[in-house]
Design goal:
Layout: E1 8-14, H1 18-30, E2 36-39, H2 48-51, H3 63-66, H4 82-95, E3 102-103, E4 106-114, E5 119-126, E6 132-142, E7 166-168, E8 183-187, H5 191-201, E9 206-211, E10 217-220, H6 225-230, H7 236-260, H8 262-277, H9 283-287, E11 299-302, H10 305-311, E12 315-319, E13 322-326, E14 329-332, E15 337-339, E16 342-345, E17 358-361, E18 364-366, E19 373-374, E20 378-379, E21 385-387, H11 396-416, E22 421-424, E23 433-435, H12 442-447, E24 453-455, H13 466-474, E25 483-486, H14 494-499
Parallel strand pairs: 1-2, 1-6, 2-3, 4-17, 6-21, 7-16, 8-9, 8-16, 9-12, 10-11
Antiparallel strand pairs: 4-5, 5-6, 13-14, 14-15, 17-18, 19-20, 22-25, 23-24
Helix pairs in contact: 1-11, 5-10, 7-8, 11-13
């Protein structure tokens, strides 16, 4: 139900990163009669790929699955760096005219639903002036990612104020940091640390990675040889589609194998590491986590860059706990001292649910962490709202594309049947309440209570499986006992409401 007020859109998207730009393209293509706008809290497109500027920044998913379904990735490198991913997102926005639909510096603070008008009133604050504005929409789509853009997570390290060098969190990387010839200490063992260490080791004096516990690391080529060969004989779109399926199925296979035969996968990983690092390296201490593969995210090492830096002694790895920071570095629990000029705290993100916005429905404040997710994209008791949350064990975009397709199908179904409201309700008492994410990583566990929950069976359960989700989300019926469709009792003309 459209109207001509400039302050009204049919679908409002929050966030102009990978998910938001993708969502706008899907809507434009599958729901061409819908007006769409994007509110972006920052001054530029790209989200994660624009914020993070640290050395070596790259994806740890291949671009055949992190890229959009509708826009083939044509670069020879499939494990792409941040700038290449950012230009891909911006190019997509420009090609589809989405860049003209973005309102920048608009940080969304709250959204209020009125059942009377079947509309959301969304309030945002201008990033520079602090000025408030509102926009009205019939459907709200949250594409704001899953972590705070303001600050990364840094634990309270004892004695941190004593250190006389430079301390940096990767989320706020200074533009002209000179680390040439310097002693660099990277705290952490996740994807960010594994990216930073080899990149900085190229010019730093020495880089030490300090980890409390190891992470599983898997070395893969940064280029997809099969895709690059096929591209010489087949059209790019066909190669892209084939490679996307090949890599997706490979990912599912490795994940399933890790769940069912963890010891076998552990031995495979260890064998590869032993080959790369040589017989004398202490794999047990530094590369054997206390948990099974895929209980936390595995780290991708493109072309073995991290392992090469370790082998060539440009980098080293220390597994220990921090006792205290000192004026010249860090003292460990074992008593060992690590000297450093620069300390990088690659200690994770601050997770936030739905971009941290507050929701009210008919004047009542809603606690979204009490809601259960429907098909991983809507919330019980919350009408006309969808959110994009990608896979934890595969590319974010595979799931994002599916969710966007589902939203488009849902909107078209509502138009066809003249419905104006849709709300998921969980009426099945046999469904148990489960955490949204089943990863045991510290940054996930710290924030789980802020996130919505999932249920123990369909359509409330997340299976983290693309094939399964394709059947359920793309081809499953929109008509569902769990979804309540309504025609709003409209008290006034929509045009008058939107201008009020």
């Amino acid at each position: 139900m459209s109207n001509h007020n400039s302050n009204y859109v049919d679908v409002l998207i929050v966030g102009a990163g990978l998910s938001g730009i993708g969502a706008a393209c899907h809507l434009q293509n599958q729901c061409p009669n819908k007006s769409v706008a994007i509110l972006e809290g920052r001054a530029s497109i790209g989200g994660t790929w624009d914020i993070f500027r640290y050395p070596g920044i790259r994806s740890d998913s291949d671009m055949y699955t992190l890229g959009y379904k509708f826009k083939p990735w044509k670069n020879a490198k499939s494990i792409a760096d941040g700038p290449a991913i950012l230009s891909y997102i911006r190019e997509t926005a420009a090609e589809h005219g989405i860049d003209k639909k973005i309102r920048f510096n608009q940080k969304v603070v709250r959204a209020s639903w009125s059942s009377e008008t079947a509309q959301w009133t969304v309030e945002s604050k201008h990033g520079e002036t602090g000025e408030s504005s509102t926009i009205v929409c019939s459907f709200l789509m949250m594409c704001s990612g899953y972590y705070s853009y303001e600050t990364g997570y840094t634990p309270d390290f004892p004695g941190v104020e004593q250190f006389q060098g430079t301390i940096i969190h990767p989320q706020k990387w200074p533009e002209n940091l000179d680390y040439k010839g310097k002693r660099v200490l990277v705290i952490g063992s996740g994807a960010t640390a594994v990216t930073l260490v080899p990149a900085m080791a190229e010019t730093a004096g020495h880089v030490t990675m300090l980890q409390r516990s190891p992470t599983y690391m898997v070395s893969l080529p940064s280029s997809d040889r099969i895709a690059n060969t096929l591209r010489r004989i087949l059209p790019a779109s066909i190669v892209y589609s084939l490679t996307r399926w090949k890599n997706t199925l490979k990912g599912i296979l490795i994940y399933q194998l890790s769940q069912r035969r963890p010891e076998f996968v552990k031995q495979l990983i260890k064998k590869q590491l032993r080959k790369e690092l040589g017989p004398d390296f202490d794999l047990e201490r530094h590369f054997t986590p206390p948990y099974n593969p895929w209980d936390q995210r595995m780290c991708l090492v493109p072309d073995g860059d991290m392992l090469i830096a370790l082998r060539e002694k440009r980098a080293s790895i220390v597994t220990d706990h921090i006792d205290t920071f000192t004026p010249t570095g860090i003292k460990l629990k074992s008593g060992e001292q690590l000297e450093a000029d620069i300390i990088v705290t690659a200690t994770g993100l601050n997770l936030v649910s739905l971009g941290g916005i507050s929701l009210t429905i008919d004047g009542q404040s809603i606690e979204t962490n009490k809601s259960v997710t429907y098909k991983g994209s809507m919330l019980t008791g919350v009408p006309n709202l969808a959110f994009v949350f990608g896979y934890t064990n595969a590319s974010w975009t595979l799931k994002a594309d599916l969710i966007c397709t589902f939203v488009c199908r849902l909107l078209n179904y509502m138009d066809k049947h003249k419905y104006r409201q849709v709300t998921p309700h969980l009426n099945d008492s046999s469904v148990e309440d489960l955490p949204l994410l089943d990863l045991t990583s510290g940054y996930v566990l710290r924030a789980l209570d802020r996130f919505p929950r999932q249920g123990s069976k369909l359509p409330w359960r997340l299976y983290q499986n693309y094939i399964f989700d394709t059947l359920m989300i793309r081809f499953g019926s929109i008509k569902d006992d769990a979804l309540e469709f309504k025609n709003a009792e409209v008290q006034a003309k929509v045009g008058e409401v939107a201008t009020a």
